[in-house]
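User: Hi! I'm working on a homework problem where we have to compare a predicted structure to a textbook description. Could you give me the structure for the chain below?
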Amino acid sequence: MASAPVPSTSLTQHPNDMAPLNYGSDPHGLICGFLFTPDAPGRPISLDEAVAWIRDADAAETPVSPESFVWLHFNLSDASAQSWMRSNLALAPEFFEALREGSRSTRIEDAGDHLVAVVNDVAYEFSFEPSEIATLWMTVTERVAVSARSHPLKSIDRLRQAVREGGRFDSSLSLLIHLMHDQGDVLVRIVREATVQVDAVEDTLERGQLQRKRADLGKLRRVLVRLQRLLAPEPGALFRLLRQPPAWIAERDLDELRQGTEEFSLVLRDLMALQERIKLLQEEIAAQVSEQTNRSLFTLTVITVLGLPINICTGLFGMNVGGIPFSESPHGFLMIFLLLIVFTGLAGWLAFRRRD
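Assistant: Happy to help. Predicted structure tokens:
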């Protein structure tokens, strides 16, 4: 029996159904590529198709909708990725400089008509370990958005999934704004989880194990400080961009960027307040530890003072030399014992009179 013919791929196939076929199949480290047009979801596109579309878009005789753009996402683990981008894409030198330096401080900079962004996000299986932070480098122009990473990121994976599910973006900058909002959500989640840990420390503060709790708080505080430095965008660069944006950026995108900046400011304020709260808890624990140490030293001092008369008498009367008092008296031991009781009581009174 003849086998049924294999159906050919139709040109009218839904673009999202083709996305898994293109994943990782293109050379030069391309992970995914999409072409966005007005009122349509992103269509998967190869490197050759992207270069041809960019060439046609730059040509004066080929009008292109201002809301159309290409997004290319690269894996920097491929050694040929950067060389291909240099040869085929007109990207800002600041973008390649950021890739070469490996800068991980979150920021958005204006490099002429290009925007160069460094976005940090948590890697998979994140558990408050700063080493699990992964970095995404991105450059955005009116027609092209290029992103590159060395390790998988949750935010970029969610963005790709949203595009494959039919998500629409009106401009190349809206992709970057989407990533910034995702980063803000990551910070909110981190603040919530850290707050739960701090609440647990407060609830168990009176139950002992102060040294361990103090060490846990110190580790959490160091992690939060590093995460704030990595995930929080530089306010100076954002304010400069908002004050003097490139001409191709639409006003609605600027409004969304301002809103994202305000959300970041609120989250950072909560993060700094949480760090201050941890600092106060550390000081309280340190005060309790110091109080326990003082009590131990006081107890040791009292025992030493109370034993001082006995030690002196045993030292004096144990020299076995002539002329020891009361050596011939039948009541000598009782008299010495009473003297020791008196001196010990006097020493105890002197030690306890200013205890409070």
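For your comparison, note the following. Residues 1-25 have pLDDT under 50 and may be disordered. The first helix runs from residue 19 to 22. Good luck with the assignment!
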